[in-house]
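To: structure subgroup
Subject: Chain for Friday's discussion

All,

I'm putting the inputs and outputs inline so they're searchable in the archive.
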Amino acid sequence: MKAVRYHRYGGSEVLTLEEAERPAPAEGQVLVKVAATSFNPVDLGIRAGGLQEVFPLSFPHIPGVEVAGTIAELGPGTDGRQVGDAVVAFLPMNADGAAAEYAVVPADALAAAPKTVELPDAAALPVGGLTAWQALFDNAQLQAGQTILINGAGGAVGSFAVQLAHQAGATVTATSSPRTEERLREYGADRTIGHLDFASSAVAGAPFDVVLNLVPTTPEEIAALAGLVADGGTLVSATTPPPENPGRGIRTAQVFVVSNAEQLAELVRRVDAGTLRITVADRRPLADLPAVHDEAASGRLAGKTVLIP
């Protein structure tokens, strides 16, 4: 089969589209014929070796932690699955991924794919959707009637977070570029504001019951975000670690997204119900993966990009 692999840590030049042996599913695994995988910012750190203490790799390594496709083969102990089922999954970070024609997937990570979107686009759901869900409900414990500021709402995670927070009954303030402002209002943002000026303490709607940070920030900037949280509120960050004890009864948490098939199935249910939209900025051939890494590293990637074998 064709697969993008790298044989050592390094820059985008280590990513090579090459022939690889088609894997076979072991106990508790299925083999998925890949309709698409997607790019995630964490892919850059894993490829460069900056995360090898957290996600050690065996080489050669196939990247791609999101997958949408159809089951091609069943391993032992996968009762309830059938060949031909359309599925989505969030794969283990340091296992071989889905930047290939076929991928081995733990059966307990699978959810049925949405029926109302094209199968390749479903590859944009698992990481962004699960990160948003876990940040809002597992970490922040967001409740109806609360106010939330989502910093970085225009990205893949933020787009899901705006929709989920709105559906939960929260009043949503979203930071946005002019390019994403209209879409975020369609998704349920009650207020959109420009990128935060951390030199100013004036932010419309502050203080907030919950602040969710989805963009890289300095320690000083994340401390400033804590200043926007109401007494007894919550600051959650998916990037820079928040201060452990900012005072005023504020609780802080850092998001470490994990695979959760039940939560993923609920996200799929909402997609099929028409209440959760998947935003795909671009669909590219798998051979473009090195270029996608370069564009992301230089800030030129337009948004969530799916890659099709």
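Points worth raising on Friday:
The longest helix spans residues 126-139.
The first strand starts at residue 2 and ends at 5.

D.
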